[in-house]
Recover the amino acids of this structure.
């Protein structure tokens, strides 16, 4: 397989137009699309080829309501940490699409999966959580390519989530994902546009000598 | 921006042909390509738009030698956990491209970045590490689109890495990345092909009622 400029352009467009979406239409997502997204997620890198992500598709209204309650409580605690203008700015941000997104997923990491036989995670157990994060990012890009938006919600008490879904021992909450047709499109992160946090440059430092940069 | 089947096909090919590469040619990677990869990495999702990944490009031979030593020690400890046929299989796996990869990166997470103002990580500080993992995955796909391979090495003692690079307080080691032209291409993970861990299906469980699946 030889990749060319058309692949690079397509990836660049997907990366540029991927957003953390919080404004959804209520139009449903069809089953075949969901199956394609699941297949794409399986192509994510994973330590020891272990695929430790576990996904629950949550339709039950009472479970969704409990998650919204968890978010509301965690968000109020988080908001209390800011004051003055920043507190006002925080309250103006829309931080989740829990109210409308037609598909909502609870993602966990199985922290001791038999798959992979422990390879690569003896020294760094966190590699399992890294694998789940990469799988979520894969889903994000695959959703974008289907003209869908995904929003990742982490203003939640993870232990409450684990209890709510009565997950097996060893499953650790990773994220709540809202998925659906975005209400609008934008190539600039909402937090940048809202004045909360601009896109900041990052640098790669070169270490050419032993004595530091 | 409306995505079509050409975007979906390009992403699918990139995901399918992305591998954890351990066999590299020693051909160098030019600076412009590295700059494009850095720009792509900046398009990764990050909690509160914080971009908490910190990247060191390590050229110094004495630093690379110290990393190889860290790997050798950690790998010997990991190998000792297996016995019988699995121990033999472990020893036959090539687990790193540290010997030849022309570009080698130490990636850290800044665990208390000023950027993002704490947004979204009060309840789940791990979201910063998730952001770094997603940035690494972004780099992985962008490298693949440039016909480059990337290998992620985690059989390393993370604290030894932090000490070796004398990183600022709060930087946490995430991964060592080997980058370069792959010696060969394959659409099946090496660990699957080597008989260590096949590709296992994953399932998305549906939760339609409060009482469980």
């Amino acid at each position: 397989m030889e990749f060319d400029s058309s692949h690079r352009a397509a990836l660049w467009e997907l990366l540029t137009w991927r957003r953390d979406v919080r404004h959804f239409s209520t139009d449903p997502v069809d089953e075949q699309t969901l199956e394609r997204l699941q297949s794409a997620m399986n192509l994510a890198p994973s330590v020891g080829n272990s695929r430790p992500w576990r996904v629950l598709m949550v339709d039950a209204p009472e479970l969704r309501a409990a998650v919204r309650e968890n978010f509301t409580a965690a968000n109020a605690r988080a908001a209390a940490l800011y004051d003055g203008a920043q507190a006002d700015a925080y309250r103006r941000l829309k931080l989740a699409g829990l109210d409308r997104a037609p598909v909502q997923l609870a993602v966990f990491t199985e922290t001791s999966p038999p798959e992979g036989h422990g390879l690569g995670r003896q020294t760094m157990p966190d590699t399992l959580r890294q694998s789940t994060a990469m799988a979520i990012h894969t889903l994000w890009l695959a959703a974008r390519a289907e003209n869908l938006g995904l929003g990742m919600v982490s203003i939640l008490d993870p232990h409450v989530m684990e209890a709510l879904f009565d997950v097996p021992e060893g499953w650790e909450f990773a994220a709540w994902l809202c998925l659906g047709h975005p209400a609008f499109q934008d190539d600039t992160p909402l937090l940048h546009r809202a004045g909360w946090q601009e896109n900041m440059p990052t640098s790669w430092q070169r270490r050419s000598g032993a004595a530091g940069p």
